[in-house]
Design a protein that fits this description.
Maltoporin, Chain A, about 5% helix, Phage tail protein beta-alpha-beta fold, single chain, 5-stranded mixed sheet, Ferric Hydroxamate Uptake Protein, Chain A, domain 1, 22-stranded antiparallel β-barrel, mainly beta
Length: about 775
């Protein structure tokens, strides 16, 4: 019987049908017992709704309450000694959460989960990436909301995007190395190579755009609040460059109420490799209490290498160093505006490539010269927002990106001789963007309307020749201008059925210019192009536990200019591509409240005139339209809260793709799979939490991740098999309120496989390059809050 009561307390909902004022005194006579039951009894007596969604919290012992008190005072007495507090949304709606003590972590969870339990904030889970503050259970599409624990970030934040791809099978990337990877969502992949084509995934820092036609900047995740991933094309709300979806990193903002700081440090060692470490710190400093504050984050990471070059008598050649800083300055109530000014700076340097050759000893590769890579990233932005017309909000964001990439490859043998040759590629990118939008409508009828503009210039310079003085060969300068107006709105056409529709009108113009050391050449312009994209969705709540959605959404990328294949003096234009997706999804039960919950979506993608960055037979980069793609897939997430201290999660991604109707010599006419994306991927994760003593907690997690088979490229010599491996990880942390000690082991089984990447384009024709997984790595960490 007691077990039944506790199960009821886990969902912890006390239904109050009245509208009693919480200040009105009532006579309470509620005996001590589990907090969930006591809170429910107070809610029933006072005629208010009291929710306790944390199962462990609901089971804590409450002293009860006896006497005549207001509902607020009664709850205060019932919560004494429980480590909980009551948050009033309004006079009749209350949530019980863990006490938010400023000098210690807000909450502790075993790991990162898609819908947090307990939540980091008392408000409901909102998909802010929808630009309409739409509730996740009402969002008619697939949204992955990952809330971060400070403790989890102190252990994993230095890994950047890899920490996300290890958690979500639907999100994947190449494995070229830190700062040079391409992100993919749901199998929408064009190639492994970096070039002038726009990224398939739109990436954002809050509301500021992070990239355009550049690899993932791979920012450190330290001191982030959450990440939101919208799967599938997002052409209506985000425009060009969101074919696969949107990844939005949401940083913690300055807090003008109190000064505090956090810090973490870790030491790591890789089997068969070297040692590394990471350090990070954050300072939150109010400048005018309640009105003005700044937040500073600094960090540095050294990832140990694990590949040796015996020909140069070097060990661990592929070590990587990254460091950066972020500064945000916030002013509140500035003539009704809240203004955030921020900057992000990060530098990544890798000493050599992380590939080996079949037939050589494991984790060894011999080259005539080093093949380093550098990624220098700068972002400056300003976001201003204010309420208008009652419940509506006006938001405007302007950002500027400077992004410099330098890549070096060993081109020895490319001229038919044994003389060492060096290929160097420099990509200098500048991106100016602005978006201004107005949103409102409340929870039932959310809407948004706005306009945006982008100006992007990239200069790709290439050099080939002797290692000491390589000569400049053909490069290209691309300029792209876009202006858009967009809107989207939802409207309930029945009590359980909501329709959503939107559109985006975009005018784009591009121009390209061939670059070399002898002739400048004239700028070649494309014709201005106008494009209208529309979307539609239905969201059907069949009952309180089950809902479904049907979603149609398009995406597109503009064309551009690239160096023609095999030419040092001629450029060629690649055409715009477009994509559309139909998605059918279901949501069964609440992930944050119910013991068992399911999220699933089936989708079909039609992709025309696929743009791809490739390499030609000589090993030089080239860009072309390679054909038309079709993708069919299933995306699945299951969460089982087996007990108040143990949670099991399973995520799966399954797809089938092919490429047909070749538009150029870059692909053949036969049906072939799209590159880099496995047919299937599954991750199983387990998280647990135990209170060992007062203010001493042990949290831990373990996971297994299977990645299916894929191919490096569509046609020879790129049709190299990759993937088909399983990796495991385990970690634990002892929390002592203000500080914690952690131990994490990745690739615990020391799996060996060829991952999604290439090594050296000048050796691809031999089809013998392998990009191995990082061997087993152990990290010991310490984190603190001051």
């Amino acid at each position: 019987m007691r077990g039944d009561k506790r199960a009821a307390a886990v969902v912890a909902i006390a239904f109050g049908l009245g509208a009693a004022d919480v200040a009105q005194a009532e006579m309470f006579n509620i005996a001590p017992g589990p907090l969930g039951e006591v809170a429910a009894a107070i809610g029933a007596k006072a005629g208010i709704t009291v929710a306790v969604t944390d199962p462990e919290l609901a089971g804590r012992l409450s002293p009860g309450v006896r006497g005549k008190f207001s509902a607020r005072a009664a709850l205060d007495r019932a919560l004494q000694g429980t480590g909980a507090e009551a948050v009033f949304y309004d006079k009749v709606t209350v949530r019980i959460i863990r006490a938010r003590v400023k000098l210690r972590p807000v909450r502790q969870k075993p790991a990162i989960v898609e819908t947090p339990d307990p939540p980091a904030e008392p408000e409901e889970i909102v998909v802010t990436a929808s630009k309409q503050n739409m509730l996740i259970d009402n969002y008619p599409g697939s949204a992955k909301i990952i809330d971060f624990e400070r403790a989890w970030l102190s252990r994993n934040g230095s890994r950047g995007t890899a920490a996300l791809t290890d958690t979500l099978p639907t999100l994947s990337s190449t494995n070229l190395g830190r700062g040079r990877n391409k992100l993919y969502v749901r199998g929408i992949s064009d190639s492994s190579f970096n070039g002038p084509t726009q990224a398939t995934v739109g990436q954002y820092w809050g509301d500021a755009r992070l990239n355009y036609n550049a690899p993932d900047p791979d920012l450190n995740l330290y001191d982030l609040k959450r990440v939101e991933i919208l799967a599938g094309p997002q052409g209506t709300l985000y425009g060009a460059g969101s074919l696969g979806g949107v990844v939005r990193l949401v940083p913690n903002l300055p807090d003008s109420t109190e000064t505090y700081a956090t810090a973490s440090i870790g030491a790591s060692a890789t089997r068969f490799g070297g040692t590394g470490g990471d350090v990070a710190a954050m300072l939150n400093l109010p400048l005018a209490k309640g009105r003005m504050a700044l937040r500073l984050v600094v960090y540095g990471t050294r990832e140990p290498g694990y590949i040796d070059d015996p020909s140069r008598n070097l060990r661990d050649i592929n070590d990587s160093l990254s460091f950066g800083q972020r500064l945000t300055f916030r002013v509140e109530d500035l003539a009704g505006w809240t203004v955030d000014l921020g900057s992000v700076v990060q530098n990544i340097g890798t000493a050599d490539g992380q590939y080996t050759l079949r037939g050589d000893p494991p984790l060894e590769r011999s080259n005539a010269l080093a093949q380093p890579f550098r990624n220098d990233y700068r972002l400056a932005y300003v976001t201003a927002r204010r309420p208008v017309f009652g419940s509506s909000e006006l938001v405007t964001t302007t950002s500027f990106v400077w992004h410099d990439l330098v890549t070096v490859f060993d081109a020895t043998g490319s001229d038919g001789t044994a003389s060492p040759r060096r290929f160097e590629e420099k990509n200098n990118i500048a991106l100016l963007s602005n978006e201004t939008r107005l949103s409102g409508g409340g929870r039932r009828t959310p809407w948004v309307a706005g306009m945006s503009g982008i100006y992007s210039v990239s200069r790709l310079s290439r050099f080939l020749g002797s290692p000491d003085n390589p000569g400049q060969i053909a490069g290209v300068r691309n300029r792209q201008v876009e202006f858009s107006v967009f809107g989207q709105a939802s409207y309930p056409i029945a009590s359980s059925l909501t329709v959503t529709g939107g559109g985006r009108l975009t005018v784009s113009d591009g121009a390209g210019k061939l670059l070399d050391d002898v002739r400048g050449g004239g700028e070649e312009s494309s014709r201005p192009r106008m494009r209208f994209a529309w979307s539609a969705a239905l969201d059907w709540h069949m009952n309180s536990s089950l809902s479904a959605f049907l979603h149609y959404q398009p995406g597109f990328r503009p064309g551009g200019f690239a160096v023609a294949s095999g030419s040092a003096t001629r450029s060629q234009q690649f055409e715009a591509d477009d994509l559309s997706e139909v998605e059918l999804g279901i949501r069964w039960r609440d992930t944050a409240r119910d013991r068992l919950s399911v999220r699933a979506a089936a989708f079909a993608v039609d992709w025309n005139h696929v743009q791809a960055d490739l390499v030609d037979r000589s090993g030089l980069p080239v860009t072309a339209n390679i054909g038309n793609g079709r993708i069919y897939g299933l995306d699945l997430d299951v969460t089982w809260r087996a007990s108040p201290v143990w949670t099991l999660t399973t995520s799966g991604f399954f797809n089938y793709s092919n490429l047909t109707g070749a538009d150029s010599a870059a692909a053949n006419a036969a049906a072939i799979t799209l590159p880099n994306i496995p047919r299937d991927g599954v991750r199983i994760g387990s998280q647990w939490r135990f209170e060992l003593a007062h203010e001493v907690t042990l949290t831990g997690e373990a996971s297994a991740h299977y990645v299916g088979q894929s191919h490096l490229g569509a046609t020879p010599p790129l049709d190299v098999r990759q993937g088909q491996y399983v990796t495991g990880a385990i970690g634990a942390r002892l929390d002592f309120a203000r500080f914690g000690i952690s131990l994490d082991i990745s690739n615990i089984g020391d799996a060996r496989a060829n991952t999604f990447a290439f090594g050296n384009p000048f050796g691809l024709s031999r089809q013998n390059q392998v990009t191995p997984l990082r061997p087993r790595t152990v990290r010991l960490g310490f984190d603190a809050r001051f």
